[in-house]
Design brief:
Number of strands: 4
CATH class of the largest domain: Alpha Beta
Distance between the termini: 108 Å
Membrane topology: Single-pass membrane protein
Number of helices: 5
Helix content: 40-55%
Number of domains: 2
Strand content: 15-25%
Keywords: Cell inner membrane, Cell membrane, Cell projection, Chemotaxis, Cilium, Flagellar rotation, Flagellum, Membrane, Transmembrane, Transmembrane helix
Subcellular location: Cell inner membrane; Cell membrane
CATH topology of the largest domain: Tetrahydropterin Synthase, Chain A
Pfam families: FliL (PF03748)
Protein name: Flagellar protein FliL
Length: 175
């Protein structure tokens, strides 16, 4: 009959209250550890993106010995092309005109003099392309993006080997 032993009510109370206390105590260090790790990661990421770690990681070589950066950033220049006005290919008796004012974005190594020398070729390439466009090809932002890409490609071919960074529209009018 030793096997049919009744549990002591005092032991049952201690057993019922002990596991939750042990769990609460065992989770507290884990939560604190996770909070510290997350805090360290967030602080490290913030310091990295703020540039505070650049001297330690070797990113500060461009600064001079006195700590000031004396190297000037390359200056982008702009060159305005003359207004381009062409009649679009409509296939109808009533013409539709396109007036376009373009500004070229030049990298520092390209001068306006080099672009000016190629101006007749630039105007010819642009007008030849523009005259073959249909009005429906210019509708919406997608039409403007395609027009910009095609003009950039043609102007870069006209001024090669001098690079052009971008083509900017100052005016784009279709009547």
């Amino acid at each position: 009959m030793a096997d049919n032993k009744q549990p002591d009510p005092a032991d049952a109370e201690e057993g019922a209250t002990s596991p939750p206390v042990k769990r609460a105590k065992s989770r507290l260090p884990l939560i604190a550890l996770v909070a510290v790790v997350v805090g360290l990661i967030a602080g490290g990421a913030g310091a990295y993106f703020a540039g505070l770690l650049d001297p330690l990681l070797g990113g500060g070589e461009e600064a001079s010995a006195d700590g000031h950066d004396h190297a000037a950033a390359p200056v982008t220049s702009y060159f305005s092309l003359p207004d381009l006005m062409v009649s679009l290919n409509t296939g109808r008796s009533r013409p539709i005109f396109l007036k376009l004012r373009v500004t070229l974005e030049l990298p520092p190594e390209t001068t306006a003099g080099r672009i000016q020398e190629a101006m007749p070729r630039i105007v010819d390439y642009c007008q030849t392309y523009l005259r073959e466009l249909r009005p429906e090809e210019l509708h919406g932002s997608a039409g403007s993006v395609r027009l910009r890409e095609e003009l950039l490609r043609r102007i870069q071919a006209a001024v090669a080997p001098n690079p052009i960074t971008d083509v900017l529209f100052s005016e784009l009018l279709m009547q």
